[in-house]
Amino acid sequence: MTSENKNKSGVSRRGFLAGMGIGAGAGVLAGGGGVAAYSAETDSTGEDSSISFRDAHQAGIVTAQQEHLHIVAMDVLTEDRDELIDMLATWTTMAERMTQGLPAADESGESDYAVPTDSGEAQDLGAKNLTVTVGYGPSLFDDRFGLKNSKPAQLNPLPTFPSDQLKDELCDGDIVIQACADDPQVAVHAVRNLVRAGSGVVEVRWSQLGYGRASSTTTEQATPRNLFGFKDGTRNIHSSETEAVDDFVWSDEAGWMNGGSYLCARRIRMLLELWDRQNLGEQQATFARFRKSGAPLGTEDTDDQEFAEVPFDLIYGREPVIPEDSHVFLSHPENNGGARILRRAYNFIEGSDTFGHLSAGLFFIAFAGKPEETFIPIQMKLSRNDRMNEYVRYESKAIFACPPGLKEGQDWGTQLFG
Ligand code: HEM
């Protein structure tokens, strides 16, 4: 999806970052004027690579999955509701600009004597299909900001699942920003500048980089591979499945969450050293798919069989060909009352652990309109019985309610607080 969507106004009501040059007081939030000065809407190949910011639903959910992720969860520091509303308005303007390849704020009034309004590292990179998706955690709806009565129905802290090995500092959060782009620096730049603009109002709780997509959300995209070497995303919900998207991705509950989606996140460490010592048969039995083609066991190991039906009833000798503890058996809709989720996961490798092993894994993100009927029961089943559990450690959990898309003239502050 390309966009002709130029920057809209959306002026912050307070200059809480005026000292730095960010905020309404500093005239940073461009209306028409500042925008004309920039035209970074094409990438280095000259092709338009920006994605519309305003739509019925937020971008970054069914959007063709970009290659890179920077996701950050924040806690709100202020107890002043207006300060939070102002920050969300400022973020909206900044996010909209950045998704169009513009600097986070209008730089026309800059001087050697003022702090630059944009941190600068994405200046020549264009939009690179950047999407910025916001979401709110259950804790934001406590007593602090008068939001108690507008808490979405299914926004409850995720349960602790069997075999979780959670690190508390990587869990939960009041607000999430998911930035995805086809250039890592563009995603990092977006998060960095929003965090910077939120200084004093929010602080970072956890953040995660993902360097390669491990799902596909459209049929045009080839299925990528995860760090176990398997194709991942074959049976994902694809954006062209409009009925499934409506049934399983968008929330139909009343109130501001209507048309939004719940973001369910799990940082899953993958024990590559252990996995890399297993024979191919065991690896394939773990997923019930061939490693090479991604086709289900019991079919041909050829690329044209990747999307073949999974033969759950096929018996070989006395055993089912699709092991009942395999990841696909346990997560397939047929064995979950038809339930489906939209996966948007990313691979990560970040340094090493203290035992001389790579610290690698999958940052799993699922979007669900009704997580209590889809994501949670599927995850519960996997956490109990998945053969894959021997090779992974679930280190975090978080859930956020992502509101629907913004209408013209609306910003995230007025959308949430009315
Ligand atoms: C490190 C963690 C994980 C790895 C390596 C992994 C890998 C895979 C692979 C290789 C497939 C088969 C290809 C496909 O259809 O995409 C698959 C399918 C699937 N996975 Fe995962 N997965 C992980 C975590 C999860 C989690 C946490 C959930 C949900 C709670 C999940 C839900 C699913 C679902 C719903 C399918 C589709 C099953 C089907 O319809 O046949 N996965 N996964």
Concise synopsis of the structure shown:
The protein is an alpha+beta fold and 418 residues long.
Question: Can you put this structure into words, describing what you see?
Answer:
There is one protein chain. With 418 residues, the protein is α+β, with helices and mostly antiparallel strands. 19% of the residues lie in helices and 18% in strands. The protein has 9 helices and 13 strands. It has helices at 32-35, 81-99, 184-197, 242-248, 272-275, 280-287, 327-331, 375-385, 412-417, and strands spanning 68-76, 131-136, 175-181, 202-210, 212-213, 261-270, 315-316, 319-320, 342-343, 346-352, 358-368, 392-394, 398-402. Strands 5, 6, 9, 10, 11, 12 and 13 form a 7-stranded antiparallel beta sheet that branches. Strands 2-3-1-4 form a 4-stranded antiparallel beta sheet, with helices on one face. The chain has a two-stranded antiparallel ribbon with strand order 7-8. Helix 2 packs antiparallel against helix 3 (184-197). The two termini are 30 Å apart. The site of protoporphyrin IX containing FE has 29 residues, from strand 6, helix 7, strand 11 and helix 8.
* Poorly predicted ranges: 1-21, 23-41
Total count of strands: 13
Helix content: 10-25%
**Oligomeric form:** single chain
Could you list some keywords that capture this structure?
418 residues, alpha+beta, 4-stranded antiparallel sheet, 13 strands, 19% helix, disordered N terminus, binds protoporphyrin IX containing FE
